[in-house]
Amino acid sequence: MSDLKPSDLLDLDALLSDEERQIRDLAREWVGDRILPEVDDWYERGEFPARELAKELGELGFFGMQLPGIGDLGAVAYGLVELELEAGDSGLRSFVSVQSALAMYAIHSFGSDEQKAHWLPRMASGDAIGCFGLSEPDSGSDPSSMRTTARRDGADWIVNGTKMWITNGGVSDVAVVWANTDDGIRGFLVPCDLPGFSAPDIHRKMSLRASVTSELVMDDVRLPADAILPGVEGLRGPLSCLNEARYGIVWGVMGAARSCFETALTYAKERVQFDRPIASFQLTQKKLVDMAVELTKGTLLAYHLGRTKEDGRLRAEQVSIGKLNNTREAIAIARTSRGILGANGITLEYPIMRHMTNLESVLTYEGTEEVHTLVVGHVLTGIRAFT
C-alpha cells in the first residue's frame, strides 16, 4: 500500500512552510473540537452562535489574519484556514470571510485613520462583527443598478435603501454599505444601532442554515460626514473587496470537498454488499479516483493563486478561474459522495448533504458560475458578453 494521503495524492503539504502547517493544524484542531460536534444540530435548527464563536475566532487570530498590520500572515496561510473552516461548514467560513475579506478589508483599504483605529482592533478581537451591504433585491450580478442612495443634508448623510442576502447582517455592529450619491457610488460605515436601521433575518433557507443571513433596511438613516470611506469612489471599491473574498472561497470549497470525499472513502471501505466492501467495485473506485484527482487539482490551483497573490501578481481574472473551477468541482465531489453513501447520504449522520446544499449557495454568491465564465471568456476572446 502507498503511504500517500488519499486527500493529498501529490503531497502538497510538502510545499508549505512550518508556520503554514502549524496555522493549518490549529484551525483543523479547533474545527474538530469546537464545530464538528455541534454543527449538524445548528444546521438542523437553523442557528449559528455568532457572538460566541466570534470571540473564539478572535482569540485564535483568524479575523483579518491576511491584512498588513493586523495578522501579517501570507495569503496561503489565510487560505489554509479558510479551507479548514469550510471543512467544518460553509457558513462558518462565510462568517469569517465576510468579517475579514469584506468588512475589515474595506475599512483597512479605504477607511480613514480614525475609522481604522475605531473598528479594526475590535473586529480583529471578535468584540465587533461586521457585514457588507452590496447586493439588493433587484441588484445582484449587476451592482451598478443598485437603488440605495445617500444624499447630503447639511454636513450629514441620509441613507435610504435595502440590501439583501447579507451574511452576518442580523448580528453585526457595523455595516459597510455601498450607495449611490451625486458623486457616484460610495461606501459608508453604518453602525447597526442607529435609528432607521434594521436587519431582519431571512428564514426558511435550505442552504447555509448554520449562518446568519439578513436584509439590511435603511430608512432615513442619518450618518455624520466622517462615515464615508474616503479612499475609494465607484465600483472599484466593492469589487476589489469581493475579489478578496473570492480568493478565500477558492480555498474554502476544497475543505467542503475534502470532507465529502473522506467520508465517502471511509464509507466505501466499510459498507459491504454482495459479501464485499463497495470500495472493491470498479465503478466505485473510478468515482473515488475522479474525486481525489479533482480535489488535488483544486487545492493545487488554490495554492498557486496564493503564492501568486503573495508575490503581488494575482489578477481578478485569475481569481475568477479559481472560483469557477473549484466551486464547480466541489459540488460535483459532494454529489458523487452522496451517491456512494446511497440513502445514508441524505441524513445529517454524515456531513455530505449539508455540504452539498451549502455549496449550492457558494456556487452562486460572490459572482455566479455564469458571471465568472464570462469573465474568463472576455480574457480569451477580448469580447465582453455580459454588458
Order of helices and strands: HHHHHHEEEEEEEHEEHHHH
From the 3D coordinates, which CATH architecture of the largest domain would you assign? Up-down Bundle
Counting DSSP E segments of at least 2 residues, the number of strands comes to 9
Radius of gyration: 21 Å
Distance between the termini: 54 Å
- The amount of helix comes to 40-55%
| Uncertain residue segments | none
CATH topology of the largest domain: Butyryl-CoA Dehydrogenase, subunit A, domain 3
Oligomer: single chain
Main β sheet profile = 4 strands, antiparallel
CATH class of the largest domain: Mainly Alpha
**Number of continuous helical runs:** 11
Question: What's the overall average pLDDT, rounded?
Answer: 96
Strand content: 5-15%
Count of domains: 3
Which sequence of strands runs across the widest sheet?
2-3-7-6
CATH H level, superfamily name of the largest domain: Butyryl-CoA Dehydrogenase, subunit A, domain 3
The helix-and-strand class reads: alpha+beta
> What is the 3D form?
globular
Overview of the molecule:
By secondary structure, this protein is an alpha+beta fold. It has eleven helices and nine strands. It folds into three domains: 12-125, Acyl-CoA dehydrogenase/oxidase, N-terminal domain (Butyryl-Coa Dehydrogenase, subunit A, domain 1); 130-227, Butyryl-CoA Dehydrogenase, subunit A, domain 2, CATH 2.40.110; 236-381, Butyryl-CoA Dehydrogenase, subunit A, domain 3 (Up-down Bundle). Helix content is 51%, strand content 14%. 47% of the residues are buried.
